[in-house]
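Dear colleague,

Thank you for sharing your sequence with our group. We've completed the structure prediction you requested, and as agreed, I am returning the results in plain text so they can be pasted directly into your records. Please verify that the sequence below matches your submission; if there's any discrepancy, let me know and we will rerun it promptly.
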Amino acid sequence: MPQQDEPSAKAADREVNARSLFADASWRSVGYGVSILAKFLLTPILARILAPEEFGVAAVGFSIVIFFFIVGYAGLPQALIIAKHERPEMWRTAFWLNLGIGIALAAGAFFGAGELAAFVRVPESKPLIMAFSLLIPFQLIQSIGWARLTRDRRHSRLATSDMSAEIAGAVCAVIAAIAGAGVWALVIQQFVSVFVRLPIVLWRTGVPMLPAWAPRDLLPYARFSITQLATDVFIFLVNGLPLIIMGRNLPTAAIGYYDISLRLSGMPRMILSSSLAGALLPAFVKIRDDKERMKRTTVKSIHMSNAVHAPVYFGLAAVAAPAVSLLFGEEWLAAIPVMAIMSVSALIRSTVNGAGSYFQSKGQAGVNLAFAIAYAAAAAGGAYAGAQTGSLINVVLGILAGYLIATPIVFGYWMHDLGARIGDGLINAFKPFLAGGLMAAIVWTGLDNIRIYESLPALRLVAGAGVGALIYGVVMLIIDRPTTLSILRLAGGRIPLIAGLIARFEPKTPAAN
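Please find the predicted structure tokens below.
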């Protein structure tokens, strides 16, 4: 067993402020971003080597094992992050408990692979389910290292693990596919990723691995963990239920358009929202007993989050046409309006991104469960209503309508629990939506009416993104200058160009006499 050291006091005791939160979220964004980029670049490469049927079989097999991952986690990593008191025995118990659960679930999936494959009506997935099941115990024990690093806010290590694992997995998958491994190239990708990430998140991170059994340290968080498990299941269903509904009511091609749109519109959420949530949870844990500080930090985080999310999601909606044409070709043009609508839906949900971390830090997992149920019901209800018309556009519009109903309710409850009022900066927090919406309308209209260079989608994409960024920046400087300058400072005030911009627009203070 590798020797473990105690977590860095410097990492654990860092001050919670806008700069530290931005740094944490930036590290997580880098890790998520590189990971997603590796997967995104891998897909078209493998698509030229492997048959679509092979992709489908692998997706079914791995989706089944992902469900076992969710059940195995059982909310234990989150419980370790929010624990008010910690002892080495608590971490040892969690490590060995997860290992035992992982072995049991792996055995169940391995020996029940035939029945699972028959249940999903894809018998060819049986050997893949058996192979993927072997990853379950390793995935569960690495979640303990993830919890230790997250609690200590060592996000650079987490980013390193994500980048290393995904790049290594992608490279090995391509090599295996070229060598003729077929669908097993996708299996190799997952194995390499897990075994590269595992030592990085466990080596000298402060997770004691000596055998121990002290369940009394974990019992106070049992209710939280079970509730977190249910929450994770319903979050899994937010996208799962619409797919089931569409599969029963719409043609297969429509599901393909939806899946491609979900992948593209989901990339910013996976990079930005997941990064922010990962950074906020340990920060909220540290200040949860200071109500006023918690309120100020939360409102500020909402404002900063909206300022980053609004241009990304509105921008993705605005450049949907050249993006789809460039990445997937002319046969996917029907996905353009779908992706635009789904990008706006993702933006609506991003406004409550920090709510999960907030209530997790307070140990109120039941609230997050209620939120997950609300969003699953909103997505399923909207998708069902739209599917009755036989139109994919109406399905995604129905999901958007469901989010527009659920999100204000979730946000209102969050602010009520926080004790925040309109006058506490909540109106200003949504100014980026105004700037982003105006930018998207101008860029979309311009690309739709200016027909030059239609055969060069890359040029139109770059032009749309550049013009959109300029419009958003100018409008934000007009209506929300302090936040814009704050983001510029945090993003790199030491870079001469950015420093010059800050100095140019910084409010001038009168010189002392």
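Summary note from our side: Confidence is low (pLDDT under 50) at residues 1-12, 493-499, 509-513.

Kind regards,
the structure core
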